[in-house]
């Protein structure tokens, strides 16, 4: 990874990511308690694909991510894309935040 400025990140290492995702539905400004914008079970299915996995290998399985580095920024964008694909019409991912640790975060919106 020639774009890295430190060698520390070039070595195989891991992170315990935390993900926050904002999802909105069109025309649902006054959502009632019984209304559901998204089935979180389906969102969790997407997230589980990356849980306890070597992200370099998982990125290679996703079109347009095969050669991208596994940064928090790219991970946030990939999660956005993957979850958006499973959402019903009129429902949209509007923001994804990925924490690499308690101090480092990346936000895509």
Describe this structure in words.
By secondary structure, the chain is α+β, with helices and mostly antiparallel strands. It has one domain: Tetrahydropterin Synthase, Chain A (2-Layer Sandwich), CATH 3.30.479.10. The chain is built from three helices and three strands; from the N terminus they run βαααββ. It has helices at 40-48, 55-60, 72-84; strands at 18-25, 91-99, 105-108. The protein has a three-stranded antiparallel sheet, covered by helices on one side. Strand 2 (91-99) and strand 3 form a beta hairpin.
Radius of gyration: 16 Å
Task: State the shape.
Answer: globular
Which homologous superfamily in CATH is the superfamily? 6-pyruvoyl tetrahydropterin synthase/QueD
N/C terminus separation: 26 Å
Q: What is CATH's topology name?
A: Tetrahydropterin Synthase, Chain A
Residues in helix, %: 25-40%
**How many domains, in number, for the residues?**
1
Class, according to the CATH hierarchy? Alpha Beta
With helices defined by DSSP (H or I, 4 residues minimum), what is the helix count? 3
Q: Provide the β-strand percentage band.
A: 15-25%
Structural class: alpha+beta
Structure summary, number of beta strands? 3
- Taken in chain order, the helices and strands follow as EHHHEE
CATH architecture: 2-Layer Sandwich
Strand count, sense and barrel status of the largest sheet are:
3 strands, antiparallel
Quick check: average pLDDT? 82
* Uncertain segments: none
For the largest sheet, list the strands in their spatial order.
1-2-3
